[in-house]
Design brief:
Elements lengths: L5 E4 L4 E6 L3 E6 L20 H14 L13 E4 L8 E4 L7 E4 L5 H18 L16 E3 L2 E3 L5 E4 L1
Antiparallel strand pairs: 1-2, 2-3, 4-9, 5-6, 7-8
């Protein structure tokens, strides 16, 4: 099938993309502010109308002709964005053979071939062919006295 471009609006922090059936998907590029860490087993799957109206207004500001369109609703989900918005690609030292590739948000599919190759090299050869230190899980550990504090790894996002 034909692939449609995604438009990223850095000012309003939204992305827009054509979908089959004369539909447009509009989403938030970053986490929404939440009062608490969401429970993935009890997270609303529908976007509420206040969020839909906000997206509608943002789309109308960016693409005025879209005022002729109808908004059909939305969905909501938890995005696996890391706390610093940079993926985690690392080996877990405490568990032999366990590797992480997470926190990519919606762009993980773009990097999957390269990340898969690097993780295969790491698993088979003992090291990836490029330095992945900046993507390490350890970057979130902050020593405090004799203990370690780790940042949470999931942020909510609504679409």
């Amino acid at each position: 099938g034909q692939v449609s471009p995604t438009v990223i609006d850095l000012i309003q922090k939204t992305h827009l993309s054509d979908q089959p059936g004369n539909l447009m998907l509009v989403g938030r590029m970053g986490p929404l502010e939440e009062d608490s860490t969401p429970d993935p087993d009890d997270y609303p799957e529908n976007a509420d109308w206040s969020v839909i109206r906000q997206f509608r207004d943002e789309v109308w500001r960016r693409i005025p002709i879209m005022r002729r369109s109808a908004f059909r609703g939305g969905y909501s989900g938890i995005n696996d964005l890391s706390p610093d918005a940079t993926p985690i690609v690392d080996r877990v030292p405490e568990v032999d053979g366990l590797f992480l590739a997470c926190g990519f948000s919606g762009t993980g599919f773009c990097f999957a071939p390269a990340v898969g190759q690097l993780l295969a090299e790491w698993a088979l050869d003992g090291a990836p062919s490029i330095d992945l230190a900046t993507l390490s899980l350890g970057r979130f550990a902050q020593p405090v006295g004799d203990s370690v504090i780790s940042a949470k790894s999931a942020e909510p996002s609504s679409y």
